[in-house]
Amino acid sequence: MRTGGALRGAAVTAPARPVIDRRRLSDSALVSIADALESGRRLTEQEALTLFATPDLPGLGHLADSANRAKHGDVVTFAANQHINPTNVCVLRTTCTFCGYARLPKEQGAYRYTLEQVLAEAAHAADGLTREFHIVGGLDMEAGLEYYTTMFRALKANFPHVHIKALTAVEIAHLARIEKMSWRDVLVALRDAGLDTMPGGGAETFSAAVRAQIARKKLAGADYIGVHRTAHGLGIRSNCTLLYGHVETLEDRVAHMAALRSLQDETHGFLAFIPLAYHPDDNALGAQLGRTGTATGGVDDLRMVAVGRLFLDNFAHVKSHWIMVTPFLSQVALHYGVNDLEGTVVREKIYHAVGAHTPQGMTLDQVLALIRGAGKVPAERDSFYNVLRTFPRERQADSGAGSGAEAPA
Ligand code: SF4
Hints:
Radius of gyration: 20 Å
Structural class: alpha/beta
CATH class of the largest domain: Alpha Beta
Bound molecules: iron/sulfur cluster
CATH architecture of the largest domain: Alpha-Beta Barrel
């Protein structure tokens, strides 16, 4: 059993300097930020707030696009992965007020997959196209460490070519609590069973005041950071998220990103930053706020990814989650700092449980058309963001595939 480990996957990207055309900036407040970006100076939290506030949305997009192009050129990546949500039973069912996915153990609609059901759902991967299982679920008292180690071993035995990205920091902490183990020991056991990387869900917004309102019993922000720090120390890389568009302030968003940036300075273990737009349908928070439909607007969605790209200078990848903001908005986001797009997602349950009005999956052809339609070059990547194959503009798609995304717990 290994107890520590070097970080796996793509090397940390060296800081890149964007080239900015100041004629495209109509807000003078953006000029000093452009100077900072070109000189390689890190943006302050106040400057991040200035970016959120600027009326010059195209100018903000130009800054973010320039920063993104300096790192990735025209290439936009996607992954062929498949979601498996093994249980929706969750002890926080009544206190995560933004969640419409979880159920209490005896509540109608509650489920917990057997190993056979997990393998049956995973059987889509037999087509050889799926490269990653994305596995998250609820905090289920009956699904302990052995439930997951058995599952991961069986998945690796049946699908040895498929990467396992599984269990949010919140789920790791839950397993540690019910098994009376440390985060580290849980992570070591899961890693030895086959876990490769961790998804970024469960972060919500770190602000204690926000958590008191929308997720009062959930793992605290500092502990989310602590679990990821522990994982990175064991060589397990991870993604991170920010749930926005509910009751948080712009200052809360910036403080949240500052905490992520700080851990990234320390560990370089984060692979991607993924802003997640809140959906108010079919959850208690939406009813309480009197909101329905889409809580965020397109402008806010674009500002969020753009500021993320510019403020998180030590992150290589910013992903747009098309399930939450629509494929069309994700396509525009490719000009606002996003370099990674959800591919196709087989059975996305979590956001459709809270009323996401988007399709549950896209074919490879649809993903390629979306990226090419933005004037970019599509590339399939692995779970560490290594490019596996590119699809030149003139070439047609040659097959259909499965894909990837982030979600609770
Ligand atoms: S967000 Fe996660 S932890 Fe909270 S109720 Fe939903 S599944 Fe459970």
